[in-house]
Hints:
Metallo-beta-lactamase, Chain A, Rossmann fold
Amino acid sequence: MKRERQKRLASPSQRIKMHILGSAGDVSGSLFYFEYSPPEGKVIRFLLECGLHQEHEEINRQKRLPKGVEAKDINFVIISHAHIDHSGWLPALVKEGFRGAVYTHPATKDLLDFLLLDSGRLQEGAADRVNRFIARRQKKAQSQGKKSRRIPLSVPLYTPEDVPLCFPLFKSINYNQLYNIADGIQLRFTEASHILGAAVVTITLGKGDEAKTVCFTGNVGRPNTPLLKELTPVKHADYVITESTYGNKLHQKRDRLAVLADVVNKAYARAKQKERGTGCGVIVIPAFAVGRVQTVLYDLRTLMLAGRIPNIATFLDSRMAIAATDVHRKWASLMNDEARQIFEQGQDAFSPPRYLECKTSDQTNRLYENASEPVIIVGSSGMAAGGKILKHLEKRLPQKNSTVVFVGYQGTGALGYDLVNKKPKQVRVHGNVLPVRATIEYMSDYSGHADYEEIIAWMRHFEGKPRKTFLVHGDGGALEEFKGHIEKALGWSVVVPQRRQCFEL
Ligand SMILES: [Zn+2]
């Protein structure tokens, strides 16, 4: 050890430090800090990912960067994809003084244009709710003649007004091209098949024999993911950082379209039976605005054109999902052959035959009325955690002839989780207790994350074993089991890092 240190002092060589600052031991708030000290010249500090912690929100307000490092010291940020748990802390970093470049795929930037604004609105709304609660408590204490302690008002982490400061910082990184982003640092993005614009990020630090390559999966999708191209193999890395969401699970391998056709056909048969006073049934599909909504629309269109389900009038009722669908249309060039060819033939792959995007409140309000024929309403949020979908559920959950189809991950505490897992007889929506008479369906087939066998299949493309593989973005059980699977299948050296742990690469 001592000799190694002496050797280093005798001939200056590069040093690379990596701090794991988020998505360690859980699946939220991706954030990695790198410090690259070249043999000569200035130290370069950068962040890989800039994610908002959505599980433990208090973390977003803590000092997240390593001790002694401030936002203004960061030279640049690399973001793998547009999901807020990978990107949503950026406005807070900019608010704290960061002014460097933000490297990301241009489609990710297009999605972040509205996702970050929405995140700002959510931050502002959360602070408002806390402040209203404080005000109510103080008023009550005053009316009772009690002395109330002054509680400082809650300040949002950032607001929609802070977000536009981020936009001029973005710099485009396209897939499969090598970019020199700083002296001695090269960056390459490859297709991650997770959501539009999502990238597996490969960074090379240093020159010549000393160069070290870090490959970060971001989030990687499944083989044959609808709309997107296949996950691109990577052949070399000294260090791999991989997501582990499904580190201990295997997906059901079944025909997604056949399952959806069966669910819709049964729902349609129920919906045709008119109920006295409420009319026909409705098929409500809550889905995540980015990726999931477009896949569902694409699948519905495919099934309708093939005559496998009836041509049911389909409505997309979510401002954010409409914006996300427009970004997908703009980036049709990034899609797989099947989807791209539909656009090249001048058709819209996201428009079922009888399709309307609700852009006015009149159009939305009409959907709250009794239905004269069965219709499909697609909206966000995917876990029915808020937004216009709640109002549709309020109307349709008590209807025996309606069906709600959940198509994605349901987190504990969300209405979707309760409906899917607890099968309650009644639920509370907007403060009202409602009977649940509608049929609740759940399809796990739309997952955007590869399972452990699928990630290991991707890892088999590496020529030579990486020095070390770090497992992040998974919960405790998934991480430990995934470690065992990789060690057994590939014989790689695997580490499950803790949050705030630092490694010298
Ligand atoms: Zn993601």
